[in-house]
Structures are given as C-alpha cells and as structure tokens.
Amino acid sequence: MVDLVSQYEKIKSSVLPLFEEIMSKAQFINGPEVTAFQNELQDYLGVKHVIPCANGTDALQISLMALGLKPGDEVITPSFTYIATTEVIALLGLKPVFVEVDPNTFCINTDAVRKAITTKTKAIVPVHLYGQSADMEPLLKIANEYNLFIIEDNAQGIGAEYAFSSGLKQKTGTIGDIGCTSFFPSKNLGCFGDGGALCTNSDDLAVKIRMIANHGQSKKYHHDVVGCNSRLDNLQAGVLRIKLRELDGYIYARQQAASFYNAAFKENEKIEIPFQSEYSSHVFHQYTIKLKDVNRDMLHEFLKDKNIPSMIYYPIPAHRQKMFAHFNLACELPQTDQLTHQVLSLPMHTELEQDQLDYITQEVLKFVN
Predict the structure, then answer these.
(1) 295 CB contacts (<8 Å, ≥6 apart)?
(2) How far is CA 245 from CA 62, 69, 237, in A?
(3) First to last CA, the chain
(4) For residue 27, what are the contacts with CB-CB under 8 A and spacing of at least 6?
(5) How much is the pTM?
C-alpha cells in the first residue's frame, strides 16, 4: 500500500548526516530539530501555534483535555473513521455521539450534526477522511450558534486546503479551535516512528496544550493541571523537517496517481471513483473506490492473489465496536453501514510507477467486468 523504502532512498543523503549529528550530540528530547520543525510547520500551515507530541492519538486526547470537557459531556463525531478518533472520547469519560457521513466525500454530514445536538453537546470532531476536507463552513456556523468547540482530526488531510464561500482558502487543521495530526510513517507527512502535533490559533489554548503534553507543568516541577507525557523526539523531528520540504511534491505525486486511477475507472458503472468536492483539494492519503454490484471482499482476495495490496478502511464502524457497547447508543447509521461493505482502498503513495498503475487497474477491471 505504501512504498516507504523507495521514498527513503530519495532522502537518504539528507537523513543520514542529520542522524549522525543528532547522535553525536546526544540531543534526543526537545532538541533544536523539534523547535525548527514546529516553526516550519506553523509557516506551512499558516497557523499561529504548532505543538508537537508523541502521536496522533495523543493529539486528540490532549485537545479534549485542553478544552476542559467534563465526564458526561457529549462529543459529536462520525462513526466511519479510524478508532483513534473516537476511543479518546470514551477514555476521558465523555460520551461519543455518532453521526452519518456524506456518502460522496465520506466526511461528517453537517445536517446530521445539527440534528444530534443536545444540551450536553460540547464539541464536534470532523475527520478529513482519506485526504479531503470535511465541509467546515457550515460546521463553523453550527458551532458558533450552539457555542461548541471544533477539533479537526487532520491525520489523513495534512496539506489539503478548504475554500470558503468568500474565496478564502485555509489549510485543514487550522480552521477549528484545535487541529490534530499524525506523523505515522504511512501518512502523507510521516516520520520513521510515531509522532503527532496539535495546531491552534488561540494563545490560551496553546498554553494549555503545551502544559498538558508536558505533565501539566507551567514551569519545571510546577504541575498546574493533570497532564501526560507526550513528546516528539529530535530524530523524528529532523526527518519531518526534511519531508516537509517535499510534502507538496508528495501530494502532487499522489494526485497524479489518483488521476490515472480515475481515468481508468470512470467509465465503469460498477466502480465509483473518489468524489472531488468544490470546497476542498484532495491530498489522497487513500484512494478509495465504492463498488456497486461487486463482491468487495472477493475483489480484495483476488487482488491479494495477484500480489496487489488493498485495504478496507473501515470494515467495522465505531458505533458497532464492543468498546462502546456500555453507552447503549442504539444509533442507526445505514449509510455508514453500507459504506463498510462497499469501499476498497488501492495502493496510493509517492513512488507508484506507471507499470504498477497499469497492472493494478487492469486486474481490478478484469475482476469487475
């Protein structure tokens, strides 16, 4: 699904001297590379504050902690997402309220959000799934109307741009109160281990986030709030600095591969290619098709036999996971349930070559036809 070895070979000459320098100075935690990466990512995203942390799940948890939510408060989120988005809600004693997604973009359905709001609702967590932005303008309107927080799960969307009706464009992760991202190796901007970051334009929230990520410290040995230990190490920050310079090129390569897939599949009535919304660019963290009158699981196995990796993101939605059974949610999300049987993600990365794309599309069409 992702060719990280070939990607590494292209930046190897920059990475190895950097590692040697860091190792020779033994600057492993909170070193200069972390500070430099933080500043460079702020500039790239056009956001006031970036606070690096250990991983994307921590970023989501820390964001909820920074907003001061209390046990029993409700957080609206899609069920059609990776479990990290939702498990942190339950971990903190909050109540997840699952809503439908748009069947075209796979992102949160804004009409469903409005219908799910109660007096206990405190936050909305839209997910920029597969690399395309959720529709943020109506979500901001809803949040302002009901005095709600917005936490963007931008783990799959870094680099994508959202276009407001005014013409203003803004990077995903910088639009809500807090944006969270992951630097897991397979992400569009990935390190060589775990890593994550939070983004905000609020000075007050930035202070709280930094404290929480560092044991709740306002200064050394002064712990003002309950926090955690979540840091991005210097080696990973160095890798991310190198890759950040390549990110727009990585995105372009993914978009070119997606264009080839689109051209190959667009005339086939059994394959629905990824929808491109007018309000968002698409950075194609995943290239995900919807299948009609095709046995998705059999195609998945067929491709496996042909040495073509494919993935099902996600076979079991959050509202059907055992971990949430004690909430007695009893929610009906037919659109989400249907997608779990229709979607299939094909190889998508920066190193896809023409012969690989030809082979993948030929075999998919062979099975479908």
Answers:
(1) none
(2) 27, 36, 13
(3) 23
(4) 33, 234
(5) 0.97
* Cis-peptide into 314, omega within 30 deg: yes
Per DSSP, helices labelled H in the chain are 4-25, 32-45, 56-66, 84-91, 110-116, 136-146, 203-213, 234-265, 296-305, 334-342, 354-368
Q: What single-letter amino acid sits at 97?
A: V
The C-alpha atoms of residue 362 and residue 366 are separated, in whole angstroms, by 6
**4-100+107-241: CATH number:** 3.40.640.10
Radius of gyration from C-alpha coordinates of the chain = 21
Residue 330: band (very low, low, confident or very high) from pLDDT cuts 50, 70, 90: confident
Question: Of 316, 169, 233, 205, whose CA–CA distance to 34 is shortest?
Answer: 233
pLDDT given at position 190: 98
Give residue limits of the domains in the chain: 4-100+107-241, 247-368
Q: CB–CB of 196/180 below 8 Å?
A: yes
**Which CATH number is correct for 247-368, 3.30.540.10, 3.90.1150.10, 3.30.1140.32, 3.90.1570.10?**
3.90.1150.10
| The pair of three-digit structure tokens given for residue 317, joined into one six-digit string | 């939605």
- The residues, ordered by sequence, that sit 6+ positions from 219 with a Cβ below 8 Å of its Cβ are none
Residue with tokens 């990110």: 247
Quick one: CA torsion of 6, 256, 85, 59, rounded to 10 degrees?
Answer: 60
Residue 342 is encoded by which pair of tokens? 């229709």
Q: What are the two backbone dihedrals, phi and then psi, of residue 312, each rounded to the nearest 5 degrees? A: -105, 105
pLDDT band for position 278 (cuts 50, 70, 90): very high
